[in-house]
Write a structure and sequence with these properties.
With 124 residues, the chain is of the alpha+beta class. 48% of the residues lie in helices and 19% in strands. β5 (87-89) and β6 (95-97) form a beta hairpin. The chain has a two-stranded antiparallel sheet. It has helices at 9-20, 27-41, 48-51, 80-86, 102-123, and strands at residues 53-59, 65-71, 74-75, 78-79, 87-89, 95-97. It has one domain (25-123).
């Protein structure tokens, strides 16, 4: 036998917020913040790659939502931030060592999103 004392008011309130999509209201801010952080972390040469970070939000069925961070600095058919991240050969036979700037930046962004979501879930 199961008994209950008290109220499910907070539970129902939280579920109603989820149903309305309130949990997703900060996606645009997270996307913008992520693009700004990636821009700050991008190694600067001309500054073009750093200034071309953006994001897209994709809503799929069943509550599946994704944020994609993009960079549109393409030179010679190759995305420049990939060259900066992983390194690349030069036209004169040299090599430019890559610098891992995307992964640490994304880790910090994901941690911030997780904190925000956890705060929202536990305060509902």
């Amino acid at each position: 036998m199961i008994t209950n004392s008290g109220s499910f008011k907070n539970t129902f309130s939280f579920l109603e917020k989820l149903e309305k999509g309130d949990i997703y209201k900060d996606l645009d801010r997270w996307g913008r913040d992520g693009a700004n952080e990636l821009a700050r972390a991008t190694p600067l040469d001309t500054g073009k790659a750093a200034s071309l970070w953006d994001y897209e939000i994709e809503y799929k069925g069943g509550g599946d939502v994704r944020i994609y961070w993009t960079n549109s600095d393409i030179e010679g058919g190759t995305n420049v931030v990939i060259l900066l991240q992983y390194g690349h050969g030069t036209g004169t036979g040299g090599y430019v060592q890559g610098r891992d700037f995307i992964n640490p930046t994304m880790r910090a962004i994901f941690d911030k999103i997780a904190e925000d979501v956890w705060r929202r879930v536990t305060s509902a």
